[in-house]
Amino acid sequence: MGGYVGSGDRARAEKINSLARLRQELAATIARDPDDPSIEIKKKAIAALESEDYIA
What is the pTM of this model? Predict the structure, then answer.
């Protein structure tokens, strides 16, 4: 079995990492200031990433 990672695999991993980072930022923002207006923006960004085909 080879250790080759295709470019599609790398792109998928990067997007999943971005999603995880956004979720962490959202949790930290909610903990810091539950009324922060950026919470809604982060929620929409997460929803958009989750709707992509690469999240299975």
Answer: 0.73
